[in-house]
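A.,

Following up on our hallway conversation. Structure tokens first:
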């Protein structure tokens, strides 16, 4: 984390800020993915049945994702990079983003993004390119992705660029979200029966 954050490119800084999704300041991580789904449904001119199914599966997966993530956070109770780096490497180092006041592992953004990407991929397919306009009105521009998984991976890495997560928290969070989403993906609904 120290090596990455002390050599950030302008694009990495932009990625960290784009996916920051701080409560009270902007969309939260689930709100960000709901925004992506909303824009996709609007572009597709989806009907009520499709819209309800997408939002239901996305909502269930992300709610379950937070439950699983926070259970793991307090089970493992890992310290944040800021604690380790300031104590062992560089007392003057500061992360790009504000460090949240709860355990480091796994990454909540990664777990949420892994869950959301798994649901949207299950519904629409592997290689659906899209433009994320979530923060366009906030002046952070848009970002283009070749797939939902690519967006989830970038969201996860944004937390390392921000200096608030170690790589295992990101990688395991993405996997945890993907795993947890399988329940929401498998739910039977009126349109799937």
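Then the amino acids I'd put at each of the 193 positions:
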């Amino acid at each position: 984390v120290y090596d990455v954050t002390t050599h950030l490119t302008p694009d990495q800084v932009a990625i960290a800020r784009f996916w920051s999704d701080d409560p009270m300041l902007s969309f939260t991580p689930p709100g960000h993915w709901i925004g992506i789904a909303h824009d996709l449904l609007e572009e597709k001119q989806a009907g009520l049945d499709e819209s309800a199914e997408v939002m239901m599966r996305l909502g269930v997966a992300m709610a379950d994702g937070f439950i699983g993530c926070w259970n793991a956070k307090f089970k493992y109770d890992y310290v944040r990079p800021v604690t380790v780096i300031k104590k062992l490497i560089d007392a003057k180092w500061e992360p790009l983003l504000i460090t949240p006041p709860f355990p480091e592992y796994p990454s909540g953004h990664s777990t949420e993004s892994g869950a959301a990407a798994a649901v949207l991929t299950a519904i629409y397919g592997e290689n659906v390119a899209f433009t994320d306009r979530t923060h366009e009105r906030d002046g952070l521009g848009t970002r283009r992705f070749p797939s939902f998984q690519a967006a989830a991976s970038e969201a996860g890495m944004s937390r390392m660029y921000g200096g608030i997560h170690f790589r295992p928290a990101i990688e395991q969070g993405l996997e945890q979200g993907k795993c947890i989403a399988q329940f929401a993906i498998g739910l039977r609904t009126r349109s799937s029966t």
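The first strand starts at residue 130 and ends at 132. Curious whether your intuition agrees with the design.

B.
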